[in-house]
């Protein structure tokens, strides 16, 4: 989801020319510290999603109220995590965001690829640990594969839409120099996408993997994970294409 104080195919490359990575942490922040922030942030995000889902199902049998509780907790939790960890790592918490940032800044040197190689595993491990932590807090089996099938085609379309919108938002904010609004804007978008997308907006490969480890309200069966991730990556590409089409840099008269 997330993504970031975050950061953000050849026509896209032409418009998305190299620039300072929109979600990169301060230059002097060691890579190990950024990796730790991504691991902890993703773990906390998944713990919020899974934990609030468990709590909601224990408090009410009304599915609408369960989703409302789940989405509300996610909005607040994600906003806080972006505000807290954005200055350290960019608060991606999302391989799709990290991959999109790498694509836009891939000519920026070896450091960009090295960051991607560290961020993505940290986010995936964090997602798994977050689900285990939530299960532990609520007395659920620490690891129990989800039986919640999410393989329907309309759900996969929902993931394309949710991820494309997320990438468009993050990189649009970066293009217009308004990343200071990211904690509120990104959290608000994810909260809304819980309701307007058929998939309830996973929009995040690391979160998707983590949620396969819990057989609770927020879970997703492992068999559904590959297709969800594939659609999220397609959505990220669509989001970058929209950024290139919408946020076109102006040219001077001399050009």
TrEMBL record:
Renumbered residue ranges of the record's region Disordered: 1-29
Keyword Ligase part of the UniProt annotation: no
Topological category with respect to the lipid bilayer: Multi-pass membrane protein
Transmembrane segments: 36-57, 63-85, 116-134, 154-174, 181-197, 227-248
Matches recorded under SUPFAM superfamilies: Aquaporin-like
Keyword Transcription recorded: no
Predominant cellular place of this UniProt entry's protein: membrane
Compartments reported by the entry: Cell membrane
Annotated keywords: Cell membrane, Membrane, Transmembrane, Transmembrane helix, Transport
Domain of life from the UniProt record: Bacteria
UniProt biased composition (Pro residues): 19-29
PROSITE patterns membership: MIP
Alphabetical list of PANTHER family matching this protein: AQUAPORIN TRANSPORTER (PTHR19139), MIP17260P (PTHR19139:SF199)
Name assigned to this protein: Aquaporin
Species of the source: Streptomyces flavochromogenes
């Amino acid at each position: 989801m997330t993504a970031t104080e975050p950061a953000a195919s050849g026509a896209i490359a032409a418009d998305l020319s190299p620039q300072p990575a929109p979600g990169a942490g301060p230059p002097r922040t060691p890579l190990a510290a950024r990796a730790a922030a991504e691991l902890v942030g993703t773990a906390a995000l998944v713990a919020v999603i899974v934990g609030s889902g468990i709590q909601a199902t224990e408090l009410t049998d009304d599915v609408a109220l369960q989703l409302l509780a789940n989405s509300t907790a996610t909005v607040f939790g994600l906003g806080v995590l972006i505000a807290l960890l954005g200055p350290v790592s960019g608060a991606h918490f999302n391989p799709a965001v990290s991959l999109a940032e790498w694509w836009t800044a891939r000519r920026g040197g070896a450091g960009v690829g090295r960051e991607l190689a560290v961020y993505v595993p940290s986010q995936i491990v964090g997602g798994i640990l977050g689900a285990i932590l939530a299960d532990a807090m609520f007395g659920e089996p620490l690891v129990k594969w989800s039986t919640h099938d999410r393989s329907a085609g309309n759900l996969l379309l929902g993931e394309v839409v949710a991820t494309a919108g997320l990438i468009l938002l993050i990189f649009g904010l970066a293009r217009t120099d308004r990343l200071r609004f990211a904690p509120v804007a990104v959290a608000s978008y994810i909260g809304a996408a819980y309701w307007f997308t058929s998939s309830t907006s996973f929009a995040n490969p690391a979160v998707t993997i983590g949620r396969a480890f819990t057989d609770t309200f927020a879970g997703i069966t492992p068999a559904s994970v590959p297709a969800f991730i594939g659609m999220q990556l397609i959505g990220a590409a669509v989001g970058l294409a929209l950024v290139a089409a919408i946020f076109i840099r102006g040219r001077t008269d001399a050009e």
